[in-house]
């Protein structure tokens, strides 16, 4: 048993490049896990700068000097950010406020419907069960209201944090783009020279991640836009808010679709009751998600992230458990990183094994 363990250690950890790769991955994991909250603005700026680098590179390919390309892309980024802050966010916050105002009426209507259930279905539900469900819902609503109140009390601190983010993140994005070569050169100075496997992993992940992000942004815009047109045409309340949630649901495959179905169905039910209009809204939501899963996503992401659905769900559960909502959003890229590491390490070990087998007869 000890010999098997020693052979396993020798096989997987004798290559110095593999050790360097595992060290860099472990270092990145520890930094994010323990310093993620403190370095959140820096990490956000790095992600945004990475996404914008593709536009800068495209302009450079058209013989635009890098400084001018960075300036053009940064102005475009600030214009999009201001449009979101000035146009989209006020609409969403207004609908969130309206939803909060209507929550007590929705709760009262739901409570009246629950009270009628023992009379309609006496063999399946009792009055005691209805009282228990009502008490549980009342506790949940009270806790939610207290959370909203505590948020409003702490809104000054939250507003200050938002202002800091709005100042620091764009500023760091600009410098990450402008001084990319100097920063990457400085970071490489701290890394070992023998990092061929790490470079190979980065190349594969960079290609996959860039294509994934571009495809997902287009998917969110298309799904959210189609959902807004459909919900507004059907005169569904809170159409903008529900369309935004529907668009963002594609970030968490399978699970996001099921989670967002409930608020869409509940708002339709409280607006129209158990009528054909409610059923049409739920069917429309299902058709949008079928269109996304069977046509749009394969078209946009056909050459990206070839992961089995079980692997996707496992990644969502694991990384969501580690980092909450952020882990859910980045579950697929992180799973892609794990897949790339496994592929590159396996390829390297196979190469070393082949070289050993070729050298054995020669030495004999």
Question: What are the key terms here?
Answer:
mainly alpha
DSSP helix count? Answer: 13
> Count the strands?
0
Mean pLDDT: 76
Helix content: over 70%
- Quaternary state of this entry equals single chain
Overall description:
The chain is mainly α and 364 residues long. It contains 13 helices and no strands. The relative contact order is 0.08.
What is shown here, in short?
The chain is an all-alpha fold. It is built from 13 helices and no strands.
Write the layout of secondary structure elements.
Elements: H1 2-13, H2 16-35, H3 40-61, H4 66-120, H5 127-153, H6 155-178, H7 180-188, H8 196-233, H9 239-248, H10 255-272, H11 276-300, H12 309-329, H13 331-363
